[in-house]
Every structure is written in structure tokens, then in C-alpha cells.
Design brief:
The structure holds two protein chains of two kinds. Chain A is an alpha+beta fold. Chain A has a single domain, classed as FAD/NAD(P)-binding domain. Chain A contains twelve helices and 20 strands. In chain A, strands 6, 11, 12, 13, 14, 15, 18 and 19 form an eight-stranded antiparallel β-sheet that branches. In chain A, strand 3, helix 1 and strand 4 form a beta-alpha-beta unit. In chain A, helix 1 runs parallel beside helix 6 and helix 1 runs parallel beside helix 12. By secondary structure, chain B is mainly alpha-helical. Chain B has two domains: 59 residues, no CATH class; 154 residues, no CATH class. In chain B, helix 3 crosses helix 6 and helix 4 packs across helix 5. The longest helix of chain B has 20 residues. Classes of the chains: A alpha+beta, B mainly alpha. Strand 5 of chain A pairs parallel with strand 1 of chain B, so a sheet runs across the interface. Chain A: InterPro entries: FAD/NAD-bd_sf, GMC_OxRdtase_N, GMC_OxRtase_C. Chain A: Belongs to the GMC oxidoreductase family. Chain A: This is Choline dehydrogenase-like flavoprotein.
Chain lengths: 558, 215
């Protein structure tokens, strides 16, 4: 290609094909082309922890364990980005952040995993998440006892409250001084962001209906912090932040992890966990730089999220564990829970230009905290929206069947479009599950089959939310309102925690009942899913798990 | 139909703080894709693919820089860049496209007696609508459901290509690349000087003037 005027900086290497974290150094995520020292271990070193996945669960845990003095090697199948030099303002190019390895989907309501919920990057899907950082409603941790559905968590909400705070401070969450729902909490570390027009529409609708709303607590900065600048309202958060305002795992926990002596291996796909004759894990078999290798470890942590985690446990089946690891309950892969992600959309006379600013600057958790007047269990939040053009055209085509001139005409209203979208709690069902398909991927590993169907309760929740949001959008002055009835977001629940080995995969410490040096630390451990985005809770659980590991080690119980 | 953003060209911002170097590289490369570039589709398939794209996103004939939609889909298939999921009823994307293109041609033959690209636009739409409704007369579809191919494969890939092109961004008044500068004015009816100005009925000249100074 001939040189192009105005383009000077070229990337030093290709992080999609050649690992960057090697030979005692890792990329400095804050400086183009720069490096930071990294302690390296050999495959023959028996490290304290081999962690599979560096997202919300694995990344936070790697940091905390390294800071507690454990030797840690964390693996990620994805590349190690420097956002300032690698991230483009373009949806198509940035699909490089997503887990696009094939998954077979089926069931009555087949999922579309990939762009909106599965990351393939060091830092996991927090590199492209929408940064919405919410605490669970306390009662959800005892949903069965207090609210009559689902299962109780083996965790106490008051303990979680202290870990939520730790994560909010680590991510320097920007949020309101007082949050309208739930028990009292300290103010958020940084001030809330200015609302865009899409968020103001949510506020107008909520006020017209007499329910509270709030600026969304977000993991993007409203003032400088360290080497990160405040958010410039570029609006492309879900395709990766190119200014480093977003407080992803890549920018927060992982630099700390490196400083504390953890090693991170990018482009390292773990295909199998090995064990010895006693049934204890001995390390992980992983593919990097064109060959299979084996890292010895005293403990293995699986943190690959709710599809890859059960896939790895199932793909690690052996003569001793023919149904996969940690699976004496038969629950590995089962109880996959999505969150409902339905929306209402309409047109405003006024210009909205929802592409500006983080996509969900305002929300209401009204229906997470209000229990009467519902004909369903669980709750939902709803948030303002700011879809980018490719994503928006795919909603119009997928939901309304538009194409040709009809689609081009509808797209002309892009800057007047406004929407409200839920994050809705779906029930755990054993028939919703991750299994192994017969097809294999480029590593020769069996690919996952993801089966999903709503239950009646899910459908009632969705119907309630669509009817309510329609009234709210009308009250704010929107016209031509229509429902987006088919979308889902976050994934959880395929290796649930509990206090009974017969009905759960891991205990409260995320430790597998069947293999005491195997741990699961990601959204897979959720017994219920709640009506808020899960990343803050996943990170809080990781912080708690690290503290428990420290305590157990001190007592000689690891 | 009136032009909503007369004179707005998102490319006018290429050399401003709204575009960083890596964005210039990526978009320059996309703009340089020839309309007829192809590595995946065969000589026989190509006119059908181009005609299908022309009906899903009918671009203005006089457009200075038409989006090379068919070529972008071809590039996606040549690289086998996938989406992360595939319905159990569907073959992998390359096979789905080959079979779907063959089947749409076969439907055109069966229904209207000519290959798809040789039909008039209305007749082409008729064939596409039948696929969208899941109606198959030809057995060229095999076990692939036409409606699933149309929605999840064809529309998905055509729109994913078209709305990734600056000409489409300009058409809908999208701000386009925005790093590092981002945006300042967030409220209703407020635009930054580097955003598209919308033409109010009867005041197209004002919008054209504002759009001429977008940078």
C-alpha cells in the first residue's frame, strides 16, 4: 500500500498474531509502543496459581493473589492491546475485541454470543463493556428465602457490600452523590457524568410516571486519574475506549498485577486441565506460538465466563472424571442464565444524537426494588441507549425485517431515535445449558453448543417491562414507538456456587467441591442473576475469593 | 426523498482531532477497496451477489464514493471472520453464502425464468421477499432455512458492511470517528461544529452552509 499523507505512527507489531507479553516484559497499556517489566515463570515451575482468563473474574483475582505474595500465571486466549495505538473509531475494525470463535446455538430463543457479551482480549469483555457498575439488591443473595424464587447464595450481602466498595474505588466509578435504591452506601468516588439527550428522555419519562431515576454509576472517568484522562464522550465504549478513560480490567487490575509479580500470557488458549491419580489438578495444557505446552500449578482457576468455563471443564474429561471436572453434581454447563435485553424505541421531534457519550448514562432500578404490582419473580433495570450505526441497522433489520429503501429511510431517523432497554433477571433452568458439539475448532478442541429457552416467568417479566417502558417513552414525548422483543445480554450460572455439593459446583469461596485445588472465578458461579449488569459483582466475588485464599493458606488449608 | 444532511461529508474530518492515525489507516484501507475486488465468490456467483447487495442497500446512482458492499462481504468470507455464533440449522458462513446465492438464483429461475441479476428491481425484490418469508420452491437451499439465511446471514453481512462505510455515515448524519476529540454538546438539539447539520424543511441552504464548515 502506498504511504498515506497524514498517517505517521505504524503499529510496532501485530498483537493478533504474535504474543506481546514475553521475555520479561508486557505492553505498557498507557503509552504507545512502550513496555513494562513482567516477571516470567517457566512451564516447569510449579506456580501457586494458573488462572485461565483475565477478565472481570480472572484479572481481579490475579492482581489480588499476586499482591498477597502468591506466584501467578494468568492465561488469555486474546491479544494484549495498547488502546491508544490499537483501537480504531470503527465498529467493523473493532470486532477484533470479541470472542468470534464459533458456538452452535439452539433452543426456543437461541442466543447470539459474541459482540455484546464475549470478549477475546487480555482484560476480557471489560475492554468493550458498557461500564455500567451496579451492586446487587441485598435480597438477591437470599432470593429463595427472602423473595421466594431461584436459589440462595452462600454469601452474605453485608460482606459483599465491603467488596463492592473495594471494586468501586479500584475502578474510580463516576456516579451520583446519593443512589436512590437499596441500603445506604458511600458516595461514588468521582462525580456523575453529564447526561446526554437520550438519558434526559429516560429522566423525563421516569418523572412523568413518578418513579426515581439516576445517573448511571459508570467505570469511565469524570476527572483524571493516574495516567487515564476523563471521558471525552466519544460514545464508542462498546467497541473499546481509545482514550483510556474507561476503567477496564486491562487498565486497572492488570497493571497492578504485573507490578506485584504476576505473569500474563496473551494469545494463550488453555485447552485442558490435567490432574493426578488422587484427583487433584496438576496444571494446564495451553496453546501458544504454534504449539501445545503444559504449565505446572498447585492450583488452577477457571475464569473464562459462562460458556468457555464449562467448555474447559467438560473438555478436560478423563478416565477418572468421564463427565468432566468438578461435575459430580452433573451441573457443569447447566443453569445458564442470560439477562433479558428487550427495548422500546421511538422517535423524538428534538435531535437526540445518541451516539454521543457513554450509551447508558441514566437508568432506573425501580422494578428491581419494588415487589408489589408484579406478576413475575425477579426484577429489571432499564437504561438509556446509544447504538452505533452497524448495531442499529442490525436491530432494524433483525427486529422489523427492514431492508431496501425502507431500511435506508428508517436509518435516516438515526439522530432522532431514542430507546429504553432492560437488563432483566432470567430464571435458572437446567435445560438451558452449555454442552460440547461434535465440531472442533482450530485447536482441535470441541466447540460449545449453547441451548437457551425462556420460561413463562421470563416472558412475563419481559412483557411487563415493555409495557412499562412504552408508557415512559410516550410520556417523554416519543412517537412511532415499537418493541425490540428479542435480545439478551450477559451470561451467567454454568458452575453455580452453593453450600451443598449435590446442588452446586463450587462453594462460597469459588472452590470446586470435587477437586479442592480447582477454582472457578467468573459469572459462572452465580446461582441467580439479578437485574443489573454483573461485572461489578464478578469483581467483588474475585476480591472476596482472594481474601479467602489468603486466609485458607495461612491456616494451611489450601 | 429530501436529503436530510445536505453537503455533510464525514471524511472532511479525516485530518482533524476526531481521527487518530489508526482510524485513518483503517478507513483509508476500506475506502480503497475496489467495487469489484473479490477472492471468495466465483465468476458465476459474483453478479448475483452484487445484485443482491444492490437491492438490500440501494445506493444513489450518482454517489461519488459508493460503499463496496459486495467486496467487503467477499473479504469477510475470504478471511472467514465469523460472528461468534451459528444457529444449529445453519452451515458455516462460507457454505451458507454459497448455497444461499445459488438458491436465490434458482428461485429467480423457478419463479421468473431468469437469473437473479437479470431481473428488474421489483422482480428481484419479489424473490428476496419470498426468501425472507421462508418460501422455497427450489431444492438448492438443501436443509438451510431460507428465512434464517436471509435474516441472520444475508442482512447481517450486507448491513454490517454498508454501515461501516463513510458514505453511509454521511447519509444518516452520524458523527463518525471521534477520537481523541469526542464531543462537547450533549443536550437536545445541540450539535458540535464538527457534527452534521440537519436540514429543516425550507432551510436546506442553512444546513448546507453549516455542513460545509464541518471539520
Amino acid at each position: 500500500m502506498k504511504p498515506t499523507p497524514g498517517v505517521t505512527m505504524l503499529p510496532s507489531d501485530n498483537p493478533l498474531t504474535t504474543p506481546r507479553a514475553t521475555n520479561g516484559r508486557a505492553p505498557d497499556v498507557f503509552r504507545p509502543g512502550a513496555w513494562t517489566p513482567m516477571r516470567c515463570w517457566s512451564d516447569d515451575d510449579e506456580v501457586d496459581f494458573a488462572i485461565v482468563g483475565t477478565g472481570a473474574g480472572g484479572g481481579a483475582l490475579a492482581c489480588k493473589l499476586a499482591e498477597y505474595g502468591f506466584s501467578v500465571v494468568a492465561f488469555d486466549a486474546g491479544p494484549y492491546w495498547r488502546p491508544l495505538e490499537d483501537f480504531v473509531s470503527d465498529e467493523r475494525e473493532q470486532s477484533k475485541l470479541y470472542w468470534t470463535d464459533e458456538r452452535i446455538v439452539d433452543g426456543d430463543n437461541p442466543l447470539r454470543p459474541g459482540s455484546n457479551n464475549c470478549g477475546k482480549s487480555v482484560g476480557g469483555s471489560t475492554v468493550h463493556f458498557a461500564m455500567v457498575s451496579l451492586r446487587f439488591r441485598p435480597e438477591w443473595f437470599k432470593a429463595r428465602t427472602t423473595l421466594g424464587y431461584g436459589a440462595d447464595w452462600p454469601l452474605d450481602w453485608r460482606e459483599m457490600w465491603t467488596y463492592y466498595r473495594e471494586v468501586e474505588e479500584t475502578l474510580t466509578i463516576s456516579g451520583p452523590v446519593t443512589y436512590p435504591w437499596g441500603p445506604k452506601r458511600p458516595r461514588y468516588p468521582y462525580r456523575p457524568h453529564e447526561l446526554n439527550a437520550a438519558a434526559l428522555v429516560l429522566a423525563e419519562g421516569a418523572e412523568a410516571l413518578g418513579i426515581p431515576w439516576s445517573a448511571t454509576p459508570l467505570a469511565t472517568l469524570s476527572a483524571p486519574r493516574g495516567l487515564s484522562p476523563p471521558c471525552v464522550y466519544r460514545g464508542m465504549c462498546v467497541i473499546g475506549c481509545s482514550t483510556n478513560a474507561k476503567q477496564s480490567v486491562l487498565l486497572t487490575w492488570l497493571p497492578r498485577a504485573l507490578k506485584a509479580g504476576a505473569e500474563i500470557r496473551d494469545l494463550a488458549m488453555v485447552g485442558r486441565i490435567e490432574h493426578d491419580g488422587r484427583g487433584l489438578a496438576t496444571g494446564v495444557r495451553y496453546h501458544r506460538e504454534g504449539r501445545w505446552r503444559f504449565q505446572r500449578a498447585r492450583n488452577v482457576v477457571v475464569a473464562g465466563y459462562a460458556i468457555e468455563t464449562p467448555r474447559l471443564l467438560l473438555n478436560s474429561a478423563s478416565a477418572k472424571f468421564p463427565d468432566g471436572l468438578a461435575n459430580s453434581s452433573g451441573l457443569v454447563g447447566k443453569n445458564l442464565m442470560v439477562q433479558a435485553n428487550q427495548a422500546v424505541w421511538g422517535l423524538m421531534e428534538r435531535e437526540i444524537r445518541a451516539y454521543k457519550g457513554p450509551p447508558s448514562l441514566a437508568l432506573t432500578e425501580h422494578w428491581n426494588y419494588k415487589d408489589d404490582g408484579k406478576d413475575f419473580f425477579g426484577g429489571y433495570a432499564y437504561m438509556s441507549q446509544g447504538p452505533l450505526p452497524v448495531a442499529w441497522s442490525s436491530v432494524l433489520a433483525g427486529q422489523r425485517g427492514l431492508w431496501g429503501q425502507g431500511l435506508l429511510d428508517a436509518m435516516q431517523d438515526y439522530n432522532h431515535q431514542v430507546g429504553l432497554k432492560i437488563v432483566g433477571e432470567c430464571m435458572a433452568q437446567e435445560r438451558n445449558r452449555v454442552t460440547l458439539a461434535d465440531e472442533t475448532d482450530r485447536y482441535g478442541l470441541k466447540i460449545p453448543r449453547v441451548t437457551y429457552s425462556y420460561c413463562d416467568n421470563d416472558r412475563r417479566l419481559i412483557a411487563h417491562s415493555l409495557a412499562f417502558m412504552r408508557v415512559a417513552l410516550e410520556a417523554a414525548g416519543a412517537r412511532d414507538i415499537w418493541d425490540e422483543t428479542d435480545d439478551t445480554c450477559h451470561l451467567n450460572g454454568t458452575a453455580r456456587m452453593g453450600d451443598d455439593p449435590r446442588t452446586s459446583v463450587v462453594d462460597a469461596d469459588c472452590r470446586a467441591w470435587d477437586m479442592r485445588n480447582l477454582w472457578v472465578c467468573d459469572g459462572s458461579v452465580f446461582p441467580t442473576v439479578g437485574g443489573v449488569n454483573p461485572s461489578l459483582t464478578i469483581q467483588a466475588i474475585a476480591c472476596r475469593t482472594a481474601d479467602r485464599i489468603k486466609t485458607l493458606a495461612r491456616r494451611g488449608e489450601l | 426523498m429530501r436529503e436530510r444532511y445536505p453537503g455533510y461529508d464525514v471524511l472532511a474530518k479525516r485530518d482533524t482531532p476526531s481521527w487518530n492515525d489508526q482510524t485513518r489507516r483503517a478507513i483509508d484501507a476500506r475506502m480503497a477497496i475496489p467495487l469489484a475486488a473479490r477472492r471468495f465468490f466465483s465468476d458465476d456467483e459474483w453478479p448475483t451477489v452484487q445484485a443482491i447487495c444492490g437491492r438490500i442497500v440501494p445506493q444513489p446512482r450518482d454517489r461519488a464514493r459508493p460503499a463496496p458492499v459486495a467486496a467487503m462481504i467477499d473479504a469477510k468470507l475470504a478471511a472467514d471472520d465469523r460472528d461468534g455464533y451459528r444457529h444449529a440449522s445453519m452451515p458455516p458462513q462460507r457454505e451458507a453464502w454459497r448455497r444461499g446465492v445459488r438458491a436465490i438464483d434458482a428461485e429467480a429461475q423457478a419463479r421468473l425464468g431468469a437469473r437473479f441479476h437479470a431481473l428488474a428491481p421489483d422482480a428481484q425484490d419479489e424473490v428476496l421477499k419470498a426468501a425472507q418469508r421462508g418460501e422455497a420452491r427450489s431444492d438448492a437451499w438443501g436443509d438451510m432455512p431460507p428465512a434464517e439465511f436471509f435474516r441472520a446471514r444475508l442482512l447481517h453481512d450486507v448491513l454490517g458492511a454498508y454501515y461501516a462505510h463513510p458514505s453511509a455515515w454521511s447519509e444518516i448524519g452520524f458523527g463518525g470517528p471521534a477520537s481523541p476529540r469526542g464531543y462537547v454538546r450533549m443536550n437536545f438539539d445541540r450539535r458540535d461544529p464538527w457534527e452534521a447539520a440537519e436540514a429543516l424543511p425550507g432551510r436546506e441552504a442553512d444546513a448546507r452552509r453549516d455542513n460545509a464548515s464541518v471539520r
